[in-house]
């Protein structure tokens, strides 16, 4: 992964860990082991805000940043895409198999039991 | 008028052929060839329908579709709209309507294609952004990114230089090593053969004609064939049983933890569930489509295309 992507990830990890919104300075301090310039942190937060994964609110003279959604929410969103449940399946990505209805899963479960028998 | 009649015949013939192709069983034995047949039918249908309308509308020029179009352009540029002169007779009015309909259909198809393409690009960018924030790498699964979610999923995110394969933790939990390798091979086949580009025109047709259930049927048929193509590719290096087992494990592991709201959209399947078709095809191997049949289908596809385009030139 490139450096910027790596930084975005690290910044998100910091924001997800805290409950309250953070300023640029606070984020930089939380990542002090990386020794980042103030402007670098600002750039990264700006990029994340443009991507819509970070929201910012003004507090006095400083902006405060917080994640637009939890990590679990984003994982769910990706899985939703992946399992083709967004209502309008198209060519955006190709899943190995889309999510199944109860009857389909039941039919497969029976087939699986038949195949597994010789193994056990 | 002859070319208009012939093109209209081809357009209707394409619809009949598509209906037959959807019910045919040979595509199971030669999914690659069947995908080509679908592409030829789709393209020929579009070109022949638009061509029939134009050939009818431009018949007074007696120069065929291509000649008629350039004559119309010259006319429009030199002495205003020839169309208004045409429309004064009752027969002329229908010809104007035909030309307008041809233009509208062309725009609709291009609009569908471009909006689909943009939608796909936007979805992928968002997906890729999020993936880079929440997915992790696993040394045991080189070349794939891991999503920590209990449901079973494996998919690929196509791209020119940045395509990715993603596996969920739930999938890793239910697959053994060889099954996982088979799944990865399946996804690699999708990426290598750019199956997403094959599917794109069909998803845009669906978008252009959202009320036409037939289009959804065509899309699903091609989507299933593409999965079979990838299954066949994976089968070159892995046993079909491993793939079938992987499918079975996915089906029996992953359904529970997913929110129920949107499930109905995916559950609206036709007669036999697609995944069952795939599994039975893997477990009960059928003979490959014979060389002769393959050549026959490909030759028909080429003939169909050349005839349709040729009729655009026919000055009758």
TrEMBL record, chain A:
UniProt keyword annotations, A-Z: DNA-binding, Transcription, Transcription regulation
Pfam families, sorted: Penicillinase_R (PF03965)
InterPro entries hit by this protein: BlaI_family, WH-like_DNA-bd_sf, WH_DNA-bd_sf
Taxonomic superkingdom: Bacteria
GO MF annotation terms: DNA binding
GO process terms (BP): negative regulation of DNA-templated transcription
Gene3D superfamilies per UniProt: 6.10.140.850, Winged helix-like DNA-binding domain superfamily/Winged helix DNA-binding domain (1.10.10.10)
UniProt record similarity statement: Belongs to the BlaI transcriptional regulatory family.
Protein name from the UniProt record: Predicted transcriptional regulator
Organism: Marinactinospora thermotolerans DSM 45154
From TrEMBL, chain B:
CDD domains, alphabetized: M56_BlaR1_MecR1_like (cd07326)
Keywords from the named record: Hydrolase, Membrane, Metal-binding, Metalloprotease, Protease, Transmembrane, Transmembrane helix, Zinc
Official protein name in the record: Zn-dependent protease with chaperone function
Residue intervals of the Peptidase M48 domain: 144-206
Originating organism: Marinactinospora thermotolerans DSM 45154
MF-aspect GO terms: metal ion binding; metalloendopeptidase activity
Cofactor dependency: Zn(2+)
TM annotation in the entry: 33-58, 65-84, 96-121, 293-314
Keyword Membrane among UniProt keywords: yes
UniProt cross-references to InterPro entries, sorted A to Z: Beta-lactam_resp_regulator (IPR052173), Peptidase_M48 (IPR001915)
């Amino acid at each position: 992964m490139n450096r910027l992507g790596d930084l975005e990830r690290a910044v998100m990890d910091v924001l997800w860990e805290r409950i309250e919104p953070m300023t640029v300075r606070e984020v930089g301090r939380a990542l002090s082991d990386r020794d980042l310039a103030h402007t670098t942190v600002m750039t990264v937060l700006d990029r994340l805000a443009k991507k819509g994964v970070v929201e910012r609110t003004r507090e006095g003279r400083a902006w405060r940043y917080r994640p637009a959604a939890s990590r679990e929410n984003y994982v769910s969103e990706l899985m939703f895409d992946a399992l083709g449940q967004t209502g309008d399946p198209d060519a955006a990505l190709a899943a190995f198999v889309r999510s199944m209805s109860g009857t389909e899963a039941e039919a497969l479960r029976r087939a699986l039991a038949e195949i597994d028998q010789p193994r056990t | 008028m002859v070319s208009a009649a012939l093109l209209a015949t081809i357009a209707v013939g394409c619809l009949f052929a598509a209906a037959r192709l959807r019910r045919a069983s040979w595509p199971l034995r030669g999914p690659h060839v069947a995908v080509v047949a679908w592409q030829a039918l789709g393209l020929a249908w579009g070109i022949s329908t638009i061509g029939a309308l134009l050939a009818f509308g431009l018949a007074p020029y007696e120069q065929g579709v291509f000649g008629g179009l350039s004559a119309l352009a010259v006319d429009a540029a030199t002495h205003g709209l020839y169309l208004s002169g045409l429309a004064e007779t009752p027969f002329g009015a229908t010809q104007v309507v035909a030309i307008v309909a041809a233009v509208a259909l062309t725009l609709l198809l291009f609009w569908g294609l471009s909006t689909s393409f943009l939608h796909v690009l936007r979805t992928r960018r968002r997906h890729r952004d999020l993936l880079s924030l929440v997915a992790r790498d696993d040394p045991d699964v080189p070349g794939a990114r891991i999503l920590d979610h209990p449901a079973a999923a494996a998919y690929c995110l196509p791209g020119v230089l940045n395509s990715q394969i993603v596996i969920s933790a739930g999938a890793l939990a239910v697959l053994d090593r060889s099954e996982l390798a088979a799944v990865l091979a399946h996804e690699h086949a999708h990426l290598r053969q750019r199956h997403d580009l094959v599917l794109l025109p069909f998803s845009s047709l669906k978008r252009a004609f959202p009320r036409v259930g037939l289009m959804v049927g065509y899309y699903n048929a091609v989507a299933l064939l593409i999965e079979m193509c990838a299954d066949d590719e994976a089968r070159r290096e892995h046993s079909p049983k491993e793939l079938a087992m992987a499918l079975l494990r996915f089906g029996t592991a992953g359904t529970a933890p997913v929110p129920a709201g949107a499930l109905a959209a995916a559950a609206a399947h036709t007669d036999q569930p697609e995944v069952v078709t795939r599994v039975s095809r893997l477990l009960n191997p059928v003979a490959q489509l014979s060389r002769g049949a393959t050549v026959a289908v490909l030759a028909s596809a080429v003939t169909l295309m050349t005839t349709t385009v040729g009729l655009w030139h026919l000055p009758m």
